[in-house]
Amino acid sequence: MYRRTSIAVAAILLTAIQSMCRADTIGETARQLSAKYGDSVVNVSAVTKTEMTGLSSSMAQKAQERKVDILGTVINADGMIVLSESALNPASLIGEITNVGEKNQTIKLHGTASDIKVRLADGREFPARQIFTDSELHITFLVPELKEGEEKPKFKPIELAKSSRTDMSDQIIILTRGDKSMNYEPSVVVDRVTSVVHKPRIMYIPSVPTGSNLGVPVFSESSGQIGLITVIRKNSSTGGSDHRGMTAQAQAIVVVVPMEEVMDLAEQALKAAKEKKADQKTETGKEADPGKTEKK
Amino acid sequence: MAKGLTSALMRKITFTLMSSCLLLCAFPHMSAGVTKEDAATTKMIDRAMKRVFPSLVRIDVVMEQAQSGRMEKRVGAGSGAIIDKEGHIITNHHVAGKARRLVCRMPDGEEIEADLIGTDPLGDIAVLKLDLSKRKKQKPLPVAEFGDSDRVVVGDTVLAMGCPGGMSQSVTKGIVANTAMMLPRMMGEMNLDGENVGSLVRWLGHDAQIFGGNSGGPLVNLSGEIIGINEVGVAGLGGAIPGNLARSIARQIIEKSSVSRSWTGIEAQPRLKSSSQDRGVLVSGIINDSPASEAGLKAGDVILEFDGVPVNCRIDAELPLFNALQLSTPVGKKIRVAALRDGKEQKFEFTTRVREPAVGLDQELKEWGVTARDLTLMSALELMRKSTDGVMITSVQTGGPAAAAEPELCQRDVLVEVESRPVKNLAELAQITAELTKGITKPRPVLAAFERGQSRFLTVVKIGGEQPKNDPVISRKPEFPVILQPVNPDLAEALGIKGKPGVRIAYVVPNRSAARAGFKAGDIISAFDGDAVRADRDEDVSLFMQQIKRYKIGKEVVFDILRETKPVQIKMKLEESADTAEEPKSYENKDFEMGVRELTSSDRIRRQIPDTLQGVLVNRVEPAGWAMLARVVPEDILITIDGKPVPDVDTAEKLLKDASARKATQVVLFVQRGIHTMFLEIEPNWNGKKK
Question: Where are the domains of chain A?
Fold first, then answer.
């Protein structure tokens, strides 16, 4: 009896020690990742303007403007930043709401961001603009808007790499950063994958669906890149095909989008940035009509 | 308890300009079996109606209000009465005092535009003048006369005439309930643009039903004379500004566009209950550097005589009499005041000065992204400033130039210098801004000094030019232009394909990739690119569509389908979604405050718009802008402008620019909304003229 008890106690102690070692290990990995990539996670502020259209004139509302303080991740030496479109422009998550009121109105929410500013870890702040957006994954990209002749900041990018595999219940490390109240200090969150979504694409669901950590990178226990956190629309039962005139309601889910998907979008964003730059060069000297816009 | 009572009473105070609610007014008419007295009253009512009702107007107002760095427009309605043959109309300041556009509707339906001649927040009176040059009818205007409101007694029968709820002209009947109605202290003050209306006005309380929209309408006696101007509803009673006061304010406004009042710097209150005095008015305070302070008057003095007139104030209701005496003294008159100090009577002498408005008028400074106003003597003193130099910020546009500055400009900051040039007032700031921004296309950084409390801050604000647009490229995705439905087991069995899951095509968009590839409505897709398709529910269909979107544009994919239960294979090259491929051209006109874009093929499919219908889609309507006031709504299809067809955005742009160039006062749009068509009239007011 005594012997059995001793074995049990020893087993519990061993498990506890293993667990502590493991905790220490992941803690150490998180600190190392923060030291290596912490400065890649930057604070972004912007003013988002949300307009609602489709309401009758008596119900029309003025555009709502509000300031948002969010996070993004620097992904190249030129300062391209990836972040969650849903964080920058929450209206993008809703899109449109159908069958409203007696007249079955369709209300569309349209959001735009302006006055985008990026604050680097060293405190330097500069304006930026959106260059590319993916409305499926709700991921968007910014490029710095530096003045002519202005010295380029020293960006510390994460070089995006193919995702490490992770699975249900695996531990993950989220690199994040505090806001003004935390003096913009780097921060890490150790979390677990609760689920892996396979269709229409692989996505990981973190256990803590916090909306304050959108646009930041996620790593595995072994320091491999997993993906980027964003919020996407949930597949809803009213979400039909393109031409059904029905879209998802405001149901959203926090997900980790695999890094190869982000890399694919980053490639398109780079192309868009180059095209835009070329367009600007061609346009130089031309007086633009401010009232006229063409969707590019 | 007290708080609860206050809240309950406060809820009963209703300013009558409330267009959101409607109240049906009943006018009791004679019935069979009336008494002689009733018949006599009815006769008098009919006579009073004949004398005043024809001059009663409904006033439709487009007003402006400083908010979020902009002068935002909103619509309202009130009432008024024509008081002379020139077309002057008396109404409330809170109805028309901030009007950008005024249209008066006569009882016979005639609509005439009007100009705001002047407005007085302290008395809550405004005077408009009908623009008779545009009048189609040339018959003389009906004019209402004022009676003597000092002769009104409690119990007099009165008629409240106005347009409750913005409806057409209506009349209600009641009696005078109170000839000196005041808000009890626990209800607070009725404050309009910094002026405490109750410090001057003692309302005629009555029980003739009034409601939102009655504001500015006349309270009429049975002789058919105006004895009051309806203004408020308090605790179930209507409150009208006494006719004598209203008439004297209106006369001054008609003569010189403003009301001239004296300022002494004396602030008064009723005598304290503990006071042993049985007469006089207690001085509660003296404004620094005012005529009264220079004469040596002090808080605690009890004024016995003002300019030779004995004064007394025992209760709140008596205070407006003393205030009226001060205010009505001619500006620049030497005044003698007898007051008790420490039980001894003393004499004081001073000369009154012009009383300035409590606050300046708000104005929008687009280049700065703020609204601001000039400082008046009182508003400067409230900010503890010795000078009225500078411009006070009243609201800031989120994300606008002033908000983006570090440090940012905030409400109540006083802008005193721009690029080392002192700023005395709004006119100077507008002039400096115009000079600094002339011809620039990009925002220009300017050094601005502003004062916040006792501190003087410097900031750099990037003003003028076009703020850079943030217009990201949207990722391009392939489309499968069909409408699908899931084939659940029940449906599969009914279709004779039991055990064969898939998605059924309910509609194929004509002339697009799927139609060209040969898909037909009724086809059942069983596999896509080699993978079986299973869709029991709507969300499975959504998932299927999302999977297609993951493919590259241009890739050829294979669909296995069942067509009338026979297996068929269709190859299709994935094409870019029309949503991103079509890049519809757009145009926004800032004068009419609306934007349009080309109709895309997706629009035509989604809305089932036939190809024969030519037009452009309204994609933007500025809230409270001119287009919105004309009831244009986003998603309207604009078919013609002033009768000219609008087949594309270029034409819309040209026609709207032409209308802007000629400053058209009316632009008629013909639009389609769903299955309905309608004509809408945009009626902008150019040059910010108060009309």
Answer: 28-279
Mutate to test the interface with B, among A51, A56, A57 (most CBs of B within 10 A): A57
A162 phi and psi angles, rounded to 5 deg: -55, 145
Consecutive H or E run containing A46: strand A41-53
Could you identify the residue written with the tokens 């297996």? B567
ipTM value of the model?
A: 0.77
In chain B, what are the domains? 1-260 (2.40.10.120), 262-354 (2.30.42.10), 363-463 (2.30.42.10), 478-576 (2.30.42.10), 583-688 (2.30.42.10)
Average pLDDT over every residue of B220-235: 95
Interface test mutation site (partner B, options A47, A55, A62, A270, max chain B beta carbons within 10 A): A62
Mean pLDDT of B391-419: 94
Label residue B126 exposed, middle or buried (CB < 10 Å: 0-12, 13-18, 19+). buried
Residues B417-450 as b or e (16 or more Cβ within 10 Å = b): bbeeeebebbebbbebbeebbeeeeebbebebbb
* Cα dihedral: A234, A238, A242, A247 (round 10): -60
Q: What fold is seen in the domain A28-279?
A: Thrombin, subunit H (2.40.10)
Rounded Cα gap, residues B484 and B545, in angstroms? 9
Q: Which among B143, B146, B132 has a CA at the least distance from the CA of B57?
A: B143
Chain A segment 126-145 residues within 8 A of B by beta carbon are 129-136, 140-141, 145
- Reported as a single tens digit per residue, the pLDDT across B241-259 is 999 999 999 999 999 999 9
Interatomic CA distance for residues B264 and B350, integer angstroms: 8
Which of the 8 DSSP states describes residue B442? Answer: S
Answer yes or no: are the C-beta atoms of A223 and A70 closer than 8 Å. no
Rounded CA-CA distance A265/A171 in Å is 26
Question: pTM of the predicted model, to two decimals?
Answer: 0.78
Residue A280, classified by CB atoms within 10 Å of its CB into exposed (0-12), middle (13-18) or buried (19+), is: exposed
Tell me what the mean pLDDT of segment B625-645 comes to: 91
Nearest CA in chain B to A286: B441
Dump pLDDT digits (tens) for A242-259: 433 334 344 788 999 999
- Determine the pLDDT at residue B294: 96
CB proximity A152 to B under 8 Å: no
Distance between CA atoms of B185 and B205, rounded to whole angstroms?
A: 17
Write down the pLDDT at residue B22.
28
